[in-house]
Amino acid sequence: MRRIIGVILTVVMLLTTGAPVWGAEYYDTENTAYAQAADFLSALGIMEGRDDGSFAPEEPVTRAEVCDVIMKIMRKSPQGIQSIAFDDVSKNYWAYDAIAYLSSVGIISGDGNKFYPERNMTYYELFTALVRFLGYSAYAEAAGGYPNGYMDVAKRAQLMKNMDGVNYDEAVNRGNLAVICANTMEAPVSELKGQENDGVVFASGRTVMELYWDMGKISGIINGVYGTCEGGVILPENQVLIDGQPYWVQAGAWEEKLGWAVEAYYQEAEDGQRTILYGDFERENTVYTIDAEDFIEAADYRVTYADGRRDKTLRLSRSIDIVKNGVFLPAWDDFDIFQIVSGDLTLIDNNRDGLMDYALIREVSVFVVNRVDVENGLIYDHYDRQQVLDLETGAPFVRLRTDGGQEGKIEDIARYDVLNVVKTDGVYYDVTITRKTAEGTVTGIVPGDRILQMGETEYLVDYGFWQREERDWIRIGEKYTFLLDSRGYVCGYLYAGEDSIIPACLISVRELEDQEGLAVRFKLFNLITGETEVLFGAEKIRVDGYSCKTFEQVYQALALDTGGNKPRGMQQVLLYQVNGEQRI
To answer: Which residue numbers delimit the SLH domain (predicted)?
Structure first.
């Protein structure tokens, strides 16, 4: 598995992979020996994939295509070369300039007056061209010339790294071309320092990357990303820290990599700012993400959790870095993970010593929106009127995103949207806005597993919602529209139906005598039909998210005068919804 995909985590997710921070990530190179090289060269613009999202690694490459790739490695765009020695390459041929230049400087050659641009390139031909490009032709010729002398130099220059089992007389495919060119980028550009009995001695000077791309290389730990706060300071969106040093990056590409080991390639500007062109998780990062509900024990720098049918224990480094809801904590002993009711703990071993080096704690609050006060940045919960999300505009970090990753605004938030909120009051607010629903008839409820069934589909219910009495309102056989959060969890519901939410004016509300439980009669003027209706209440009634069990609570929630049946303000406008029995 090479890319991290958002999924509903019910068990631990283990990642032990080298994966690029960004790049094409082609579907047909995933889990192959070509993957890293294909993504690396694509990130630099040296090789490109197909329009269908593939890299076509097994497809052979022509001699003209190889010329084009070598020119991109050299970062050259020559034009205006007037003549060429090959009569099978016309001036309007797409690779004319590349073939003309490379042949003029002796990197590529043809056969007499023929170049055969559309013929497949062999490995012998490719390695010969690259050895010439690196400047080791003299030694290769002294060692026997084409092909063995050139192959010997190519091997010593590490161009054949990861190339076992190849027949060098066969056509080069795109996947292996990517691997060979990635090796070439790290090969030393020649300064022939001398010869030993068994071969050439390469210079320890600049590589192709350094000479042609002005690229440096850094290996370290990502210990700061956008949104992390230490000492009240938030990193900007397009900056990361690697071993404490700042680097500019593509915004959004690194945020999920806090605590990971990385090997990165960067360019440094005249003002000293370093911009990363490509990042690869060269060292194996072992990552465990544990749902808060699976915690069993945390003591003596160990965490034990339920992993399917068995318990598993992870050992923590005593110098572990801890980040909770975007903010670094001073020490592991200062935090009780059992405070987390909804959320998860991610533990990262970034040096393969079996000890977890980073702990990323996300405590998630869920809001089902009732109303939004845009001016004051306040969002009121539908099920708990006392629960208000205050997006403090002066906080160092406030971010709203849709579950698709697009930037969101408080003005875009609507009633019944579901918000997953990760926050540290006054400092950090990361809000994911979701507008997903699932509509159908409830066919089963599994209380022990917090599962609602609709036909063959099962939905996990958010822990906070399950703990509320609202779940008792859900009945098998009735049709609902469930409100889902970004994890796909059920966080609320509406009675399904196109006209289920009805605007009306409240005329009166009365308690029915001589009946057990909550018995209420409403008289309403339906603003859609223009008719007066009399409707009865269900066994429980929720007003503005407040759950009412008594007639007095209904009165209070509707802001009625205690001395009569008239609301404060005649003809109070409201929205109401009925259940399957046509009760409010």
So the answer is: 23-80, 82-144
